[in-house]
Amino acid sequence: MNFKNWWMAGFLCLWIFGPVSHVFAQGSSGSDEFIQGQVGSAFENPYWFKDSFLIVDEDVVEAQEAGKQLILYFWQEGCPYCMAMAQKNLSAPDIRGFVQEHFDVVSFNLRGDREVTLPDGSTMSEKEFAIHLKVQYTPTLIVLDSPDLENPKARLNGYRPPKPFLRLLGQVAGVEEDALQAYRLPQGELYPQPFFEQTTRLDQWVGEQPLAVFLETRSCDDCLRMQQGAFSQKGSYELLKKYRVTRYDALSPEALTLPDGTRTSVRDWVSGLKLNYFPTILLYAAGERTETFRMDSYLRGFHVQAALEYVLQRDYEQQPEFQRYIDERSARIRAERGE
Fold first, then answer.
1. Which residue in 17, 180, 187, 304 could disulfide with 230, CB within 3.0 to 4.6 Å?
2. How far apart are CA 163 and CA 151, in angstroms?
């Protein structure tokens, strides 16, 4: 089947290669239920996208050597459909697992200036590359099984809801629809993340690295949303790599030794913490045996990353008010961007 001319049937972000991003609706497929962000909302793409020098033929060869195909993923900042693709689709456990097994994903910012090297050796910026490939929508995914940009294996213009999106990628990868069931997370299981380590001896983790302890419950909607959103972002992932990170089922009777050496069960510990929201993430600064800071509300990526930095860099010692710290951090980021 040739997917090259497969056009979406839902809500899309339309890019007209000018300074303004427009929202374009082509029919109504019900996909708007997945589009919850507003135009201009900040988000990050999943952390597991490939780090690339943007040399297209090399990326194709590396994907082939791994038995995969290459996805050129075009997005733009402030696009609610790109946010939905990142958080509803590509961070869903079954889709993430399937894509990581069968594809390498390299992202291109539709407005970006990074240099891209084409298979013929010519170079251009990301935004020029998007024009060269006639990208009209974000997100757009172009699947390559060879360096031939003129004849991609598939092209997905715009957003698709998760189920048809996975079904289409399965067809592109040559995987039968029934086989896609194997990638689904079993009912009631906690969301998998590669940064989680297992331990029952938190006291042995007290040292040069800070600790992050996730407390979640099974079938917790907000736990899933934060794992698919804030904690699947590259900025969060890069910060969490500097922590020792573990997770417990808050209702588990499993025996546990806390950082201060206290022996208890996870369930009794959580009860004593008097938590009323999950997920809760307890942060311990490096070398500390008592809790330094906690995240016990629904947070998006910016605030999660601010909290992780706050403890990692021990900024709480100079600024004990987290909200003021966020304001100062926001001002610093804007200054670094020249805004």
1. 304
2. 26
